Amino acid sequence: MKKKGEIKKVKKVKDKVNDGQDDDPWWWLVQEGIRPSFLCISLFALLVRVAVGLHPYSGARTPPKFGDYEAQRHWMEITLNLPPKDWYRNSSVNDLSYWGLDYPPLTAYQSYVHGVFLKTFDPDSVALFTSRGYESYLGKLLMRWTVLSSDVLIFFPAVLYFVLVYRSMRFGMGQNSDVAWHIAMILLNPCLILIDHGHFQYNCISLGLTIAAIAAALSQKDLVASVLYCLALNHKQMSAYFAPAFFGYLLGKCLRKKNPLLEVTKLGLMVIGTFAVVWWPYLQSKDAALAVLSRLAPFERGIYEDYVANFWCTSSVLVKWKKLYSTQSLRIFSLAATLITCLPSMVQQILAPSSKGFLYALLNTSFSFYLFSFQVHEKSILLPLLPLTLLALEESRSILWLTHFAMFSMFPLLHRDKLVLAYMALYALFILVYFAPCGPSGRCHGTKTLDNTQKTKRSVDFITSITFHPLLMGFLGLCSLILHVIYLTMHPPNKYPFLFEAVIMLICFSQFVLFTFYFNSKQWMLSKHLTSKDKQKKLI
Amino acid sequence: MMEMQESPRTPVVMAQLSWFFGIATIVKLLLIPSYHSTDLEVHRHWLAITHSLPLSQWYTDETSEWTLDYPPFFAYLERFLSMFAHLIDPQIVHLHHGLNYKANSAIYFQRMSVIVSDLFLLYGVYRSTLALASLKRNLIWLLVIWSPGLLIVDHLHFQYNGFLFGWLLLSLSFLAQGRDVMGGFLFAVLLCFKHLFAVAAPVYFVYLLRHYCRGGLVRGFARLSVMGAIVVAVFVAAYGPFVYHGQIQEVIRRMFPFGRGLCHAYWAPNFWVFYIMLDKGIAFLLRKFGFNIPAPVASFTGGLVGDASPFAILPRVTPLTTFIMVLLALLPCLFRTWKDPRPRLIVRSVAYAYTCGFLFGWHVHEKASLHFSIPLAIVAVESLEDAKHYFLLSIGNASPLLSLC
């Protein structure tokens, strides 16, 4: 537990002379550079994750279907006891209607590895058939450990890699304490912790791979980036939310090189190669591959489930999509809507690929997917949040506001999981870290903030002024606060049992749309900024 | 440290400290559903005793084996808390139906009461670091507010140490400022919350006698009477009602359970461990050489053993022996305090006193190691050597805490 205080104190008196740092409450954390402070923060982040793991998981003690915890456990059971070719196939030993595997092969392999781990310590928890609905203290502990270890082995190193790359990009802009703040904002993102370590999922793996891919792309290692991104895509198909941005940025960079065709071919080969390796067991026959593919795209489940704050679900209050159109046509609608809304940011990156623009493109395309694609879950808000946390130092106002609404949009889900205490604690933690003394938003130095919204042009100012209008923000903040209380204390009217969920959805949706506009315009302003700078250079 | 610098930056300092405290509070909140020891039930039962019974029966009740064995102020505190507990869920404070009551309401209420009572620690730390340079202040905050030991003992194991250390630090901060009367008063109050803190009483006594009661015979005597009157007043407030009800003997008997054995169920790493090992070793050797050594009747670690001697060869250790040992170990420190009663050194002396109590005391809990590691944290920032000592000690005392979890 919190040993960091103890570790630090030995060093403390070493150079007392350093009077300039006297007022910095983070001196002990950041004085040795980025890596030690990363270590300290990640130890704390680990403690928080362990503590959240003490709370219930989704579907605890709710037979017959249980929840995501049981799904993950069931996948371990299936992958451990059956040969790979049977994993995605309905058979007498693999009932796909009971939490059938519906993630790409990398998830299956990961389940297999974790299954082996569980089997060593608690064989009953992964026994074929008999382990359905298996719940025990040891089982929970082991399962929590698999998530913790995935987080530590994949997500944390990826974040360190990204922070180092990002830091070198910004040429000494910002002090060490800003970097520490940035690390904390990424590692202590409340939504990710709650879903992975509370609700129970392995988003840390696919998101970690995505961060590593982003970092590799930013440090000009495009081939590594494409491999890592393909791995992320093969762990969770939801990673496709980032695909247009990766595509645009990498293609845009290739086009600017000496031999574009060769570069594109190299990237393409890497992608195909990675896919071939991951899909190897299913490439023996066309049927096998198609069987897996059909599992990955559950179109029969309808365009939306529950109450998710995206376009289809929100507009269904007015237009009954599910009744008016067939699933087939809805698929085309959603595909078209997603692509059209992605297009601007993708095109911008092809025309003018830039590091910052790439991060904004990731944000914009993932928001488009969240808002318009088929079968979106509340949890998918994690994907747009990821690039936003990476941009925390640029978008310090947006991150506060959007994390608030992302949390809010998941509140009904987490309430079902009995994670309200963890929800409130992590929300408070986020607020505290955000307003850390002398952090970028703490303002104890009385200097400028890093939020450079002030610098941008007038046309953005219009959207900015709407997005960050104090009255609007105050009103919505108050609304969401009151709704939290109402949700916890009151029963909805019998006639509308999901009234509160619907209101929450409406509020969150309105904010997400507003921010999508805002971020898109910011991305385009970036390229204008750049081109005007280029022109100035040429003139000189 | 003599004069308090009430700078205009005080609110900023408080805000920063609250930030650190807030982070700690969040970890504590997240730990609410974690493991807890029987101490949770002990304190729940005390809530029930103080709520359902008249004051005259608090220290005689035997409904559960977890009888009230803290001094009266703590009982009053439990009485105060029980009023809120009753509002939240009457079963928590029900003497019979509440036994082993493990509902969420009980656990949440009790955990929250510890978390809220830690505000005293916040204030204690704030006051004792106010006059320091910002860097030192920060480090002390980290060491005390984020102390892993306190977190484990209070928020996993379940106790109210944060609250008690708040009083201790508050008292020490007044002494360090030279405000002896207030310091003495607060220490007397602390003793009436938990008598284990009395190990430092000799140091306090000598220090106050030499530092406060000086300035000639008449003035010194006048000051001694003032201090004495204050301490007596505090004790009367605590024990008076029980004297009135004729219960004082029961109170004393409950507070000093010498029947419990030299070592606690979990061993504290202190002197007596070596003594016991020596005894076992000699007995083992003598048996090898053909002597007929009967095995001892009682075991060392049984929580509630009788009067049988647990030693095979070595003389039996009585509470009086341990008391004398503690005093002997304290002597150098008392002597030094007598010669040179400086406010700067008082925190150090008190920490030393608690170390002695830990090493030689009767029935010492491993948790008692916090008694010296928390005050020592304040000393640790004074020099690199102090920091090294603190580091070794805190690593050393973190390991026995493992057995609590």
UniProtKB/TrEMBL annotation, chain A:
Q: Which organism is it from?
A: Gossypium davidsonii (Davidson's cotton)
Q: Where are the transmembrane segments?
A: 145-167, 179-195, 202-218, 267-283, 333-351, 357-377, 420-439, 460-486, 498-519
Domain of life of the native organism: Eukaryota
Q: Supply the source organism's classification.
A: Eukaryota, Viridiplantae, Streptophyta, Embryophyta, Tracheophyta
Q: Protein name, please? A: Alpha-1,3-glucosyltransferase
| Family that this chain belongs to | Belongs to the ALG6/ALG8 glucosyltransferase family.
User: Where does this polypeptide localize?
Assistant: Endoplasmic reticulum membrane
What is a GO molecular function of this protein? dolichyl pyrophosphate Man9GlcNAc2 alpha-1,3-glucosyltransferase activity
| Entry-linked PANTHER family | DOLICHYL GLYCOSYLTRANSFERASE, DOLICHYL PYROPHOSPHATE MAN9GLCNAC2 ALPHA-1,3-GLUCOSYLTRANSFERASE
InterPro entries associated with the record:
Glyco_trans_ALG6/ALG8
Question: Can you cite an annotated GO cellular component?
Answer: endoplasmic reticulum membrane
TrEMBL record, chain B:
**Could you give a GO molecular-function term held by this entry?**
dolichyl pyrophosphate Glc1Man9GlcNAc2 alpha-1,3-glucosyltransferase activity
Q: Which InterPro entries does the entry mention?
A: Glyco_trans_ALG6/ALG8
The biological pathway it contributes to is: Protein modification; protein glycosylation
- Where in the cell is the protein located? Endoplasmic reticulum membrane
Primary localization: endoplasmic reticulum
**Enzyme Commission numbers on file:** 2.4.1.-
- Recorded topology in the membrane: Multi-pass membrane protein
Q: Name one GO biological process term.
A: protein N-linked glycosylation
Entry keyword set:
Endoplasmic reticulum, Glycosyltransferase, Membrane, Transferase, Transmembrane, Transmembrane helix
| Membrane-traversing stretches | 12-32, 107-126, 138-158, 185-209, 221-244, 264-286, 293-314, 320-338, 345-364
One GO cellular component term of this record is: endoplasmic reticulum membrane
From which residue to which does any coiled coil extend? none
Similarity remark: Belongs to the ALG6/ALG8 glucosyltransferase family.
Indicate what this protein is called per its UniProt record.
Alpha-1,3-glucosyltransferase
The organism encoding this protein is Gossypium davidsonii
